[in-house]
Amino acid sequence: MGITRRRVLESGAGLLAAAAARVRVSGQSEQGKGAAADLTGRVARYMAAARQQPLPPDVLRETKHRVLDTVAAMVSGAKLKPGEMAIRFARAQGGTAEASILTTNIRTTAINAALVNAMFAHADETDDFEPVTKAHPGCAAVPAALAVGERENASGQEFLRAVALGYDLCCRWLMALGPNHVRATHRSAEGVSATMAAAGAAASMARLDEKGMRYALSYAVQQVSGVWSWERDVEHIEKAFDFAGMGARNGVTAALMAQAGFTGVPDVLEGEHNGLEAHSTQPHPEEMAADLGRRFYVTETAIKTFSVGYPIQSALDAFLALRKEHNLTPANVDRIVATLPEDGAGIVNNSAMPDVNLQYLIAVALIDGTVSFDASHSYERMKDAQVLAVKQRVELVGDRALMDPAAPRSANVEVRLRDGRTVTHFTRHAPGTKENPLDTAGVAAKARTLIAPVLGDQRGEQVITRINTLETAASIRDLVRLLVG
C-alpha cells in the first residue's frame, strides 16, 4: 500500500499497530502456542480499539471512496430485480423500526435492513472487488455498518472506521483460509468472507469490548457459509444473497447477539475445532493478524468503472482503447479474441446474465462505443439481432499463464480487421485498481450516473457531498435521510 512507518505513526494509527504488536508478543509468551497463540484475542483487541483510532489520511480517503461506490450500488440496485424481490421480502417481514431500507419508506430491524440493503449492493456487478482473494467486502460491510450505525446513532467517523475494519476482517479471513483452498471444496469464497466483513463492521458499530468481540467472532464463524453453485444463477437474485445479503444478515446477527449478552466460545480462531481448520485444509492463521493497523485492505480493492463482472473490466478497457485508436466499427472488424486468466474466463464465458457475459459486452462496446448501466443489465439487448451477429465474432480464451498474483485480472484483446491488419492491447491493471486508482472526482462521476436516475440530480449531489465529508457528521442518520423515501 505504500504507507511508511512514519506516516502511520503521524496519523495516530501507529498507536493501534503498536498495541496489536504488544498483544501478539504477550499472547505468545503466555500461551506458548507459536504463531496462533491467542489469535482470537489479538484480533478482538484490535477490533475493540479500532473505533477509537484515527485512520491514516489516505486510508480515510479510500474508505470514503468505497462507501460512496457501495452506496451508489445500493441505490441503483434497489431498482433491479434482486432489489425488488428483497423489498417485497422486507415488507412481508415487518419488524422493530431500527434501520431504514434505502430508496423506500420501510424501517425494520437492523438485521433485516442489512440483508435487504446488501442485496441491493450486489444486485448486479457494480460493487468493488479485492483481486487477490476475489472477495467483495463493500457489499456486506457497508450495509451492515449502515444498519447498526443507524440503530445506534453512530457518528460518521465511527461509521468509516467500522467499514475499514469490515474490509480487513473480510480479506484477512480469506487470506488465512487460502481462497483457492476454499474453492477447491466447492465453496464460495465470496459468501464465506461476507459474513466476516459484516461482523467486523457491525461489531464496531455495536461498540463491543474485547470479550464481546470474541463472542461476535465466534457467532460469525458459526454462520460462515456459501457454495460455488451461484455460477448457475441466471437472474442474479441468489447471487445477491450469496455474495452480500446472507453475510450482512449473519454478521449483524452475530454482533447484536454479542451486544445483547450472548456468550460463547472465546477462542474460535485457534482453539480445538477452530474456524480456520474447519474451513481450510491448509490455513495460515497469522494472516488474520499480520500488519493489523498498518495494512488496510480497504485501500486495496478495485472500484469498477463498468457495472460488469470483474474479470471483464480489463478486457473492456483494452477493447475500448483499440476501438478509439483504430476507429473500430462492426463494419470493419472481422474477429475479436479476448484472453483472460483461466479462472476468470470460466466465470464470464457466455453467462446467462448480461453483466457477466464477456462476448455480449464486447459486442455492445463495439456497437455503442461504451457499455452503459442499462446495456449491461438488458436481457432484451442480449437478443438484439445486431448484437447477436457481432457477438458471433467474439472469442474468449482462458490462459493459465495470465494467472499472475501481481495482476490477477489482466486481459489481452486482439482484433483482426477486414483489411488484414491485426491490432492488440494488453491491460495489466484496469482503471480503479490500487495500481491504477480512480481519484475522488472519478469515483463521484461513476456514483453520479447511478444515484441521479433514482434520487434525482440535486439529492444525488447532496449524497456525494455528504459522503465526501462523512467524518464530520455527528450522526450517520444524516446520510440515511438523504437515501430514503
List keywords for this structure.
485 residues, alpha+beta, 2-methylcitrate dehydratase PrpD, 60s Ribosomal Protein L30, Chain: A, two-stranded antiparallel sheet, 55% helix, 7% strand, globular, disordered N terminus
What's the CATH superfamily of the largest domain, by name?
Answer: 2-methylcitrate dehydratase PrpD
Summed up, the helix count is 21
What would the average pLDDT be, to the nearest integer?
94
Q: Which CATH first-tier class of the largest domain would you pick?
A: Mainly Alpha
Strand arrangement within the widest β-sheet reads: 4-3-5-6
Specify Rg, calculated over alpha carbons: 22 Å
Structural class of the helix and strand makeup? alpha+beta
Number of DSSP E strands = 6
Instruction: Give the uncertain stretches in residue-range form.
Output: 1-32
Percentage of residues in strands = 5-15%
Q: Please provide the ordered H/E string of secondary-structure elements.
A: HHHHHEEHHHHHHHHHEHHHHEEEHHH
Q: Work out the count of structural domains.
A: 2
CATH topology of the largest domain: 2-methylcitrate dehydratase PrpD
Give me the secondary-structure topology.
Elements: H1 5-11, H2 13-31, H3 39-50, H4 57-77, H5 81-93, E1 99-100, E2 107-108, H6 110-121, H7 138-152, H8 156-177, H9 179-184, H10 189-205, H11 210-223, H12 237-259, H13 275-279, H14 310-326, E3 333-341, H15 342-348, H16 358-368, H17 379-382, H18 385-391, E4 394-399, E5 411-417, E6 422-427, H19 440-455, H20 457-468, H21 477-483
